[in-house]
Amino acid sequence: MPPNGRTALDSFPKPAFLEFMRDARPNKEKSPKKAVAAERPAGVRRPDAARIPGSSVHTSLASEIGLRIVRGDYPPGTILPNEAKWSETFSVSRSAVREAIKMLMAKSLLASRPKIGSWVEPKERWNLLDRDVLAWYATSPDREVFLRTVQEFRHIIEPEATAFAAMRRTDEQMAEISQACREMGEAKSLQERTRADTRFHLAILRASGNDLLVPLGVLIESAFDHLFAYTTRELDDLQLAQKMHEAIEKNIRLQRPDAARNAVRKLLANTDNVIRSR
Amino acid sequence: MPPNGRTALDSFPKPAFLEFMRDARPNKEKSPKKAVAAERPAGVRRPDAARIPGSSVHTSLASEIGLRIVRGDYPPGTILPNEAKWSETFSVSRSAVREAIKMLMAKSLLASRPKIGSWVEPKERWNLLDRDVLAWYATSPDREVFLRTVQEFRHIIEPEATAFAAMRRTDEQMAEISQACREMGEAKSLQERTRADTRFHLAILRASGNDLLVPLGVLIESAFDHLFAYTTRELDDLQLAQKMHEAIEKNIRLQRPDAARNAVRKLLANTDNVIRSR
DNA sequence: AAAGCAATATTGTCTGACAATAGACGTAAA
DNA sequence: TTTACGTCTATTGTCAGACAATATTGCTTT
Asked: A30: which nucleotide lies closest, measuring CA to C1'?
């Protein structure tokens, strides 16, 4: 029953109220509050905000503030504007601001105390492996550096994860991996192919049998998002990449950890070249 | 100015209100609300809640609910009690409940929609590498399994991270590493030693030059917390471990990636033995 | 039987109030 | 002059109550 919608703060829903961000309207008269029903004050009342799932006010606010922090607008240690100030700046209620701030606190970007305010936590505390933080982080510096960092990380994780998968995969997990691999080959569009590619690598992480590896999937997703622009359209390259994926699939299927690890290393080296050559 | 207190939801502050958790008091009369000042209703009003930093109501609530979810009380897909219900169960305001839920949403343990309610997200979405989630996760299954998983993860991460550190460390980073190593040797108590040990490994992660490795420090901290009970009191073992740490320090200092990697592998193998032998 | 429509339950948002906290500052004492 | 203490005050924490938006559920109508 719970629908499987995309996760929240992904920041692309174009938060409605951000349009009038700096539009400080100090003299907004209080809404009458007596008029119970009938007599709609005709517009003015933020007509149709919050349509898309990920764009409730607090969510959008969290995105905006989170992005600013990660981007470096408020360096670690900085004391942020207080809740009343945010509330005024964005013309939203204090509750919405508080909920947004609580979300950022949950990601360790912020902490707060009465009388002090909220301050930006030192960068080491940031939960960089969080989906949203990662997304914000990915936008701020130039793509190159970010992509290189993620790619380096993949070199550390994926070969070992794949070796474990070759040892411990269940049949169901193998089926997922194989299917994703097949769908990569049959994909009609580049986007479709990339999606199957992502599924392939995530399935391997899940099959590794180590719960802690699974959350690292966000890194792979992020990498593929940013790699998309670099992806080749050349048929030769595509076929080569497909062969490499099939080699990985095969070695996991035949339960050969070492061979699987090497196959992944080859694939990553190939990806490195794609990045470098651009 | 921002004090460097421990991070929030660490769940050891023994949240005050949890005492009367199941104490459903349906007929609580509304507080008079007219009596402005003077005439304190004498006790009853949750006398001294929220003393310790990490124990505000919403924070404690998030801990309690988060723990329940991770523990498996509400399996993925389950629709949770609604906000009003939580509010009643714990006798706290709906705002507090909402803020707690927003924190859990930020960690991808929950998601919600109007009219539906809040449901537990599939486990793959959980941000297991989050400090709090990890802490909750660590309590639920038996220590053994958790410890083994974390330790396996360390085998994947730390050798490579250390090799990178040997290549890219700055002098400041080296100083941190060396100091932690020294303090390990000079530590007077086991606890003191463990703390220095943790600092040593975290400093290496930071020195690796890959931002994404830093957040994995929570795993190491968690591992050491749980490893503490297993730690040996034998002098021989301690001295052996110290030698291994010094070998790592030396190889990073001399910028020998391969030797550093091997030194870490040895140390981890030693730790494996400690775990296994218990 | 199918399609549209209304009732309903739940989260989302706003408002306004008061409590608790801890820094800043001034005042008094040593 | 310096130190210690108490007061002032700005900020988050908590509460209460109201209304809006939304999508499921079940009913009604064709």
From this structure: C15
